[in-house]
Amino acid sequence: MDKLLIQGGRRLSGEIAISGAKNAALPILCAALLTAEPVTFTNLPQLKDIGTLLALLEQMGVKVAREGGTVTLDASGLNNPVAPYEMVKTMRASILVLGPLVARCGEARVSLPGGCAIGARPVDQHIKGLQAMGAEVAVEHGYVHAKVPRLKGARLFTDMVTVTGTENLMMAACLAEGETVIENAAREPEIVDLANCLVSMGARISGAGTDVIRIRGVERLHGATHRIMPDRIETGTYLCAAAVTGGEVRLTGTSTGYLDAVVDKLLDAGCEIVSERDAIRLSAPARLAPVNLRTAPYPAFPTDMQAQFMAMDCVASGVSVIRETIFENRFMHAVELQRLGADIRIDGNTAVVQGVERLQGATVMATDLRASASLVIAGLVAEGETQIERIYHLDRGYEGLEEKLAALGASVRRLS
Ligand code: EPZ
């Protein structure tokens, strides 16, 4: 298994480009299942999860033509609406094929994604919504089996805000008979990017980005070309990496537009941020002030940035309180940060962090995607060498991580 070796203590400076958003690309690639015409996507990040999803689509009969960050999918030959366990278990976002397959083929067999390190991750809301639209759904032998001649528009209300639940149901509704209204919809920017892609394919959607999305079903969708939006979590991660090292960086191909809550916290921590049309500049003080966080659905502070900020708070000049309200087990980076000398006390979904003067490098283990990013950030500022094991987690969500960090002056090496 690959490891990452980081020599801490270097101030990050320079400029890097931000990649396309993983969490926009995943649902948008699944949208290609909704039409028999070719769909082309650009600015696709080269990530493990993207490769996994493309392989999953290919075994369904979708033709995949990929050239770097551009891919064209042709689902005219879609003949196997099945997502097998062996593939779904490595990437739970595979559940996003469920809605499109039921809408396009009238049936689907998708393995239950199962939980992951950060929580149980149930998909009951996805199923409830499809049932409300007339699908017969059985959960047996670890698979969701859905069948319906044609989905019917309905008024859907999810019990909690769910990002992929909203995406699955919005995609399913595009080809349903009549109008669907999704209440309590998630408002994440990736949902707006998906809606924009679907509309360019002929879907009739309004309200994406608000908590009420209306979709008027059409007979079929057509091909289109869509550019994936920038990755706001990758952006936030590099802003934190620069901030914790007292650095000064410019990130291009991105914007603060979808990061208001994160930018606010970086300003509170003492950073200066300049927002350009297609770039962000950050300069950080020698030592950050502590910031309190409470994660919540967009536009509030994103749970996907919680671990990165905890790493920053570990060396801040005071005490901070972090509350995680989305997932039940998203503090696993805390015990690894403690190995680096952090002073963190966990009480349920609340972490109290007492900033220390400095962290000491050590060997730590990555447990999930954003926890790994947190350990990288801590390693950048820890004294001496930090070795991060199981970094396949990182490769799922960060394109060219060590190249980008090295371009900013970090001393980072991958050991295979
Ligand atoms: C998406 O996951 C993201 N993944 C996650 O990013 C992100 O952390 C999460 O949204 C929250 O913003 C993708 O977009 C591919 P949810 P998702 O459904 O859709 C509960 C990363 O690091 N719930 O919004 O799976 C659920 O257990 C990943 O890039 C149900 O109970 O999250 C959680 O507690 C990690 N039943 C809460 O809702 C359901 O049917 C929010 O989950 C669905 C969700």
From TrEMBL:
Residues the record lists as binding UDP-N-acetyl-alpha-D-glucosamine: 92, 121-125, 304, 326
Enzyme class, spelled out: transferase
Bilayer-spanning residue ranges: none
Gene Ontology molecular function: any one: UDP-N-acetylglucosamine 1-carboxyvinyltransferase activity
Keywords annotated in UniProt: Cell cycle, Cell division, Cell shape, Cell wall biogenesis/degradation, Cytoplasm, Peptidoglycan synthesis, Pyruvate, Transferase
Pathway(s) where this gene product acts: Cell wall biogenesis; peptidoglycan biosynthesis
InterPro entries the record matches: Enolpyruvate_Tfrase_dom, Enolpyruvate_Tfrase_sf, MurA_subfamily, RNA3'P_cycl/enolpyr_Trfase_a/b, UDP_GlcNAc_COvinyl_MurA
Its EC number(s): 2.5.1.7
Xref: SUPFAM superfamilies: EPT/RTPC-like
Binding site for phosphoenolpyruvate: 22-23
Gene this protein is translated from: murA
Principal subcellular localisation of the protein: cytoplasm
Catalysis performed (reactions): phosphoenolpyruvate + UDP-N-acetyl-alpha-D-glucosamine = UDP-N-acetyl-3-O-(1-carboxyvinyl)-alpha-D-glucosamine + phosphate
CDD domains reported in the protein's UniProt record: UdpNAET (cd01555)
GO BP annotation list: cell division; cell wall organization; peptidoglycan biosynthetic process; regulation of cell shape; UDP-N-acetylgalactosamine biosynthetic process
Protein name (database record): UDP-N-acetylglucosamine 1-carboxyvinyltransferase
Gene Ontology CC terms: cytoplasm
Localization of this protein: Cytoplasm
2-(S-cysteinyl)pyruvic acid O-phosphothioketal PTM positions: 116
Function recorded in the entry: Cell wall formation. Adds enolpyruvyl to UDP-N-acetylglucosamine.
HAMAP family the record matches: MurA
Similarity section: Belongs to the EPSP synthase family. MurA subfamily.
Active-site residues, as the UniProt record annotates them: 116 (proton donor)
Source taxonomy: Bacteria, Pseudomonadati, Pseudomonadota, Betaproteobacteria, Rhodocyclales
